[in-house]
Design brief:
homodimer; alpha/beta
Chain lengths: ~575, ~575
């Protein structure tokens, strides 16, 4: 049995474009001799379509594309994800296309409604496990969250339903280490279901989410047979021998909560008509994993730092291009955050698509000014310098009567950051460039950033990257080059400073970043209390001070640009706290 | 049977403060001779607590406050809303406090997960209808959404459970006309359940939501017996005669999906021990509705414009004060949007808490400059003028090399708006004032507004008010005064203009506001398609142009300040569209 996993990158709302992408991959899979080709969850709409699902005409559009698509599927079975309106209910559905029509529908049973997920807002839950009876094997079909459920639809398909292969279509958002989590879960699921698992995950960036691909194929005892590439499209083609699973059946299904339906899918045209080209499978550019060479399609797993860097690049690439921008502009301070942001932008888009602007003030050091220029030169990007001193003086003059007699404070610092916002946004407006912001997770957490100042921009590249990880990623980026990397050593070594006042460093206001990042991880990601965090060895008063800063800056984060999520909990859809909130602790 | 409905205003996260509020109202209700006092949904946490519910120590705090509170409840039964952790599950619960302890728990069955609601993210659904057997009557208890369900827990309590009274504790968000919707629904529910309905709705502003109070008491044939005040706290005390309901029983319960539990609540201390003061009920400041004088507690229903104006005032008042601000600052252009915003701020906070700043440019007319000053004088508020011409020149100078040779466009317009942002934010930072923004729903819908410019600020007062309604509300505000109202006639009559370029009016870019607001209502609020909207008589090309503007400005709205929701669908938690989105139509 030859199965193709179409690890593709759809665009939310582009129904015609996504349908065309599916058709192209169906043809490619048929040419590679596959009998069955699988696409990601709701590939026709893109994921997550959010409130587009409340529009009747959007759902009607999905239905039309699906019907047209079905007509093109002959000689191969295609399993395609689509949001499907039936009566008054909408389902997260897998349509099984065969013989030029929609042969079967599976409806997702487990609807995630936590973290970044809101599926119960949109979908009704399915209630039936589906197994396809093909001429030579049984294939269970389920969708994303379904397979994470222990003793769920997967085991039921494999044991009660006798499926030798269970196919799961996912759009599973990335965070660091997610691949290993998935593989461990799938190994257990495969063994428990005594079935091959074909786990197909889509790829691409969608607002704050990145889908990392990395589809996995496991054997019926849980062994890994193939791994798709991370952060890239791929058509992964595997040969599976159903007999290997059959010998393992006979266990009782541990739970059977749903009705099981076994549906015949009997092709008019011989399934695998393309099989004549089977030996040419490798010529489709992808190779075929088989029992004889099971590891032929094993993409190397990236290191954690490489993985995060690639996630940021894909997130930026897709946000920029799917929103039809062609060029970005970045304020370059000479510090490490904007340096890393510029590196990611160049990796994602190419040096010709990136402009950097240095906007020095009276507080900018010679070192940071020359580091900014040096970085731009090494990256080969357009570089401009627009000093803000005259503008700063003009504000101090205009506001003079109101500020007179008051000690300079954060007010004067923020004025500078907001001048820079105005300059970058003017270039953005005039030339149609997208402004990339440069704030990291640590400073956004505690509000060490200026609203309408350095926070201003369309996309926040390292918004979910804690400062300690910023350093690691900068070192990683530099290590990619044989010659010294693009980020000057002095940028890496200088004490962090916002350079908005004389002799300022971040640590005047904040605890050391190593400590701060520990507190943020405990408080933001793990929802621990003051007492629990203090138990890590941090003085209670310091924990309370930091948490007070985090809570007190919710209003800023609510007005922040979206950015790439790389941790299990980012400041975005997965953290929904009230602004008006008196709870402390 | 004397029942008190405590229409109170809790604060999200202020567990101790909310508990103190409950204790004070329990005492007041007892003093008024009530046997039972009801509080809003999750009154101890405030609503909605959002992701505070994911913190174990927050839930533990709720449990502690509830336990302490129970000890204070003797001689009266209190029904108190609380998020309740049981095992690993969290319920939206009603705790019945009697004899100094938690006597019973009801768990909300219907969890709303649409529009602004995310309750399935947090809560497990209850599965049992609860009826309290008191010495002299049966009282059904349910929570908010439960009562909106036809043939739901209300009918089951009233018919299968024999309850003469059904108490519903709500936090029901306001939109214009919501009161009439609720009353019509409750009249049907009361008649179908053959029971009195005591519908208690909390009051207050919480971020974008306003809860309007307006609790309702209906008799068992659906007649309205009492209406609480809108947008104000109130202890509404009513006398109900259970015999009036008993005569209507005997219908079959049309559906019985949940187990029914009838729980004895037998007070140690005589319930209604405070009844000696019964005749003094009116002395508690609230009066008592009774069969003899059923309309004694009938608050007058406000007109639609008055209702919206009051909603805006409460929203501003609570956002400002619950976030511990004491003063606001507003940029005053001389146009109608900022004029209305200033009026609302003064109504909400008092003239002494409002500063207005006029920031004229070369494009500001004599008329708007003098209107701004005139409005401030009539409102009696602090007024300052900070011209931006010097600053604008300085930007044009600094950016000159980059803008040279290019036609002036929206870039130069936005620079001015962003200068004003920087000035207002400097005052905010220096003096601790909250910036109120002045954009209306029509311009936020189509993006006719500057990100980091006039959009900048902490709270967007008229964000959900379409321009046509802005005019009506301005006229309404002026009508409140005997002498000519605060808004100059010339402000009301002048053609709307952003005054960011020479001879500019809004209608250079936008369709007439009457038409625009129709399109926005159809597209945003009702999710209609291009074709459906064109069928209203609008040229198809114009619909497509406007919808393109709406879709293309999602990125701006994502960075907008929160503002008061007054329509069934605002740009906030109830409209969740992807930024990256190729769907058009």
């Amino acid at each position: 049995m030859r199965i193709a996993l179409a690890q593709v990158n759809p665009t939310v709302g582009d129904l015609a474009g996504n349908a065309a992408l599916v058709i192209a991959k169906v043809r490619e899979a048929a040419k590679a001799g596959a009998e069955l080709v699988v696409f990601p969850e709701v590939v026709l709409s893109g994921y997550p379509p959010e409130d587009l699902l409340l529009k009747g005409h959007f759902l009607e559009g999905c239905r039309k594309e699906l019907a047209a698509l079905a007509q093109t599927c002959n000689g191969i079975i295609a399993v395609v994800g689509v949001p499907l309106l039936e009566g008054r209910d909408v389902y997260n559905a897998a349509a099984v296309l065969a013989n030029g029509k929609v042969a079967e529908i599976y409806r997702k049973i487990w609807l995630p409604n936590y973290a970044v997920f809101d599926e119960k807002r949109y979908f009704e839950a399915g209630s039936e496990v589906l197994v396809l009876q093909l001429p030579d094997l049984r294939v269970g079909i389920n969708i994303c969250e379904d397979i994470w459920e222990e003793c769920g639809p997967t085991e039921e398909a494999g044991l009660a339903g006798g499926a030798e292969v269970v196919v799961n279509m996912s759009m599973s958002p990335y965070h660091v280490g997610k691949g290993a989590e998935r593989q461990a879960m799938l190994a257990k699921r495969a063994a428990d279901a005594a079935a091959f698992i074909c786990y197909l995950n889509g790829v691409g960036g969608q607002d704050e989410l990145v889908f990392d691909g990395q589809s996995l194929v496991l054997g019926p005892t849980g062994e890994l047979l193939a791994r798709g590439r991370q952060f890239e499209e791929q058509l992964l083609v595997v040969d599976l021998d159903p007999a290997a699973a059959r010998g393992l059946k006979g266990k009782e299904c541990p739970r059977s909560s749903w009705p099981l339906r076994v549906a015949d899918v009997a092709p008019d045209a011989p399934v695998g008509a393309g099989r004549a080209t089977r030996e040419a499978g490798a010529n489709a550019g992808e190779g075929v994993a088989s029992a004889a060479e099971p590891y032929g399609l094993m993409a190397a797993a990236l290191s954690p730092d490489a993985e995060v860097y690639r996630a940021l690049c894909l997130g930026v690439h897709d946000y920029v291009l799917k929103n039809r921008f062609r060029h970005v502009v970045i304020g370059l301070s000479g510090g490490i955050d904007s340096a890393l942001t510029a590196c990611v932008a160049v990796s994602a888009l190419g040096a010709g698509c990136v402009t950097c602007v240095s906007m020095p003030s009276r507080f900018s050091s010679t070192g940071t000014k020359s580091d900014a220029r040096e970085l731009a030169e090494r990256l080969g990007i357009d570089f401009r310098e627009i000093p803000i001193e005259t503008l700063f003086e003009a504000y101090l003059g205009s506001l003079g009567p109101y500020l007179a007699g008051r000690t300079p404070d954060v007010t004067e610092q923020n004025i500078q950051a907001r001048i820079r916002c105005n300059i970058l946004m003017a270039l953005s407006n005039k030339f149609g460039w997208l402004v990339l912001t440069t704030g990291n997770k640590s400073e956004i957490a505690v509000g060490y950033t200026t609203l309408y100042g350095d926070m201003a921009g369309g996309f926040a590249v390292i918004k979910d990257v804690p400062k300690t990880l910023v350093y690691r990623l900068a070192a990683y980026r530099n290590s990619l080059d044989d010659r010294p990397g693009p980020i000057p050593a002095s940028t890496l070594e200088r004490a962090p400073s916002a350079e908005l006042a004389a002799d300022q460093t971040d640590q005047d206001t904040l605890p050391p970043y190593g400590l701060l990042d520990q507190i943020i991880d405990a408080y933001v990601v793990r929802d621990e209390s003051v007492e629990e965090i203090a138990a890590l060895g941090v003085p209670l008063a310091e924990v309370e001070r930091v948490i007070g800063m985090i809570d007190g800056n919710e209003y800023k984060r609510r007005q922040a640009a979206p950015g790439v999520r790389i941790t299990p909990k980012a400041f975005g859809k997965d953290r929904r706290l009230p602004i008006t909130n008196r709870f402390r602790g």
